[in-house]
Design a protein that fits this description.
Blueprint: E1 9-14, H1 17-25, E2 34-37, E3 45-48, H2 50-53, H3 63-69, E4 74-76, H4 80-95, E5 101-105, E6 108-112, H5 123-138, E7 142-147, H6 150-157, E8 165-167, H7 173-178, H8 190-198, H9 204-208, H10 212-219, H11 222-229, E9 246-257, H12 260-281, E10 285-294, E11 299-305, H13 313-325, E12 334-344
Parallel strand pairs: 2-4, 7-8
Antiparallel strand pairs: 1-6, 1-7, 2-3, 5-6, 9-12, 10-11, 10-12
Keywords: Cytoplasm, DNA damage, DNA repair, DNA replication, DNA-binding, DNA-directed DNA polymerase, Magnesium, Metal-binding, Mutator protein, Nucleotidyltransferase, Transferase
Binding site for Mg(2+): 13, 107
Subcellular location: Cytoplasm
Length: 359
């Protein structure tokens, strides 16, 4: 493709995905403030319905804080198997239009539809058709951002939420970015936004006024990226089916763990979830890492690599047990445990099974 020819990129983002699935499957939850997650003392909100968001409830918020903001909040446990199945349905719809699908998470993805399977000239029409098909097949709504690069498409998808879409055309890009607060930029987190504000950089226009040398001095390698997006430039391609580098699972406990047997019991659900992924995907790994967060939030990891792939769940459990044994005597109670498998054989799925990545 001619590099001077604008690309047509769509960012599709499901609306309050986990919570919307629960409201779809449980009619008694519709129209009510719902949080997917645990209501226990150390629980965390995984997703919040739009009714809950009106009270300030957000994902990653501690459950106790969410309940303080919305005493009527209804907690439901997550059903990841269901969310993954719905995600596969959505991914199949995307694949009707383009093979260039870059999953970001279960509920969002980038699509490059510059050259699409339907031979449609309008990315806006494609986004509209995809959203209509998602609604018809899953009874769920999605929002879309359409633009000539990933950065702008991501920003645009937030403009008509829920259940809408927004277009930023090539001639609109620079002006669109200039008026935005830097905290709205994808890739600029709260800490970076605060530092930019301290430097007198509050908007895209302020960021655009800085030299690339100054931004690199202040923000390192990311400075060049910030210099580009302030000018609405983003040349990152949509990368289809990126290979995973690791798979992991972790749990936070209602009470601190101190006994060896309790730590093993606390690890078991994470071990089972990681191995379930290995069985489903046909992917194995060589390096096992146990993550430990203590009661005072200090975090450590312990890892071990084997010559070949971990062959079964029993071996994974044994390595985790030996890594935990090395932590004793514990200096303090443990509030979180996690297991990660890395050095994956993503290029050679086990037992001849085809690797597929869900959206």
């Amino acid at each position: 493709m001619n590099p001077d020819t604008p690309r047509k990129i769509i960012h599709l983002d499901m609306d309050a995905f986990y919570a919307s699935v629960e409201q779809r499957d449980h009619p008694e939850l519709r129209g009510k403030p719902v949080a997917v997650g645990g209501a226990r003392e150390r629980g965390v909100v995984a997703a919040a319905s739009y009714e809950a968001r009106q009270f300030g409830v957000r994902s990653a918020m501690p459950s106790v804080t969410a309940l303080r903001k919305c005493p009527a909040l209804l907690f439901v446990p997550p059903r990841f198997a269901v969310y993954k199945e719905v995600s596969r349905q959505i991914r199949a719809i995307f694949a009707e239009y383009t093979p260039l699908i870059e999953p970001v998470s279960l509920d969002e993805a980038y699509l490059d539809v510059t050259h699409n399977l339907k031979q449609l000239a309008s990315a806006t029409q494609i986004a509209r058709e995809i959203r209509a098909k998602i609604l018809a097949e899953t009874q769920l709504t999605a929002s879309a951002g359409i633009s000539y690069n990933k950065f702008l498409a991501k920003l645009a998808s937030d403009y008509r939420k829920p259940n809408g879409q927004f277009v930023v055309r090539p001639e609109q890009g620079p002006a669109f970015v200039e008026g935005l607060a830097v905290g709205q930029f994808h890739g600029v987190g709260p800490v970076t936004a605060a530092k930019m504000n301290q430097l007198g950089i509050f908007t895209g226009a302020d960021l655009r006024a800085q030299t690339v040398e100054f931004l690199q001095q202040q923000f390192g390698k990311a400075g060049r990226y910030y210099h580009a997006i302030a000018r609405a430039e983003d040349h990152r391609p949509v990368v289809a089916d990126r290979l995973r580098k690791s798979v992991g699972s972790e749990n936070t406990f209602a009470h601190d763990l101190n006994a060896f047997a309790d730590l093993l019991d606390g690890l078991r659900p994470s071990i089972e979830e990681v191995w379930e992924y290995c069985q489903r995907s046909g992917i194995l790994g060589r390096t096992v890492t146990v993550k430990v967060k203590f009661a005072d939030f200090q975090q450590i990891t312990r890892s071990r690599s084997s010559v070949g792939p971990i062959p079964n769940q029993g071996v994974l459990e044994r390595i985790c047990r030996e890594l935990v044994e090395g932590l004793f005597p514990l200096p303090k109670g443990v509030r979180l445990l996690g297991v990660t498998l890395s050095n994956l054989n993503t290029g050679q799925p086990a037992a001849g099974r085809q690797l597929t990545l869900s959206f």
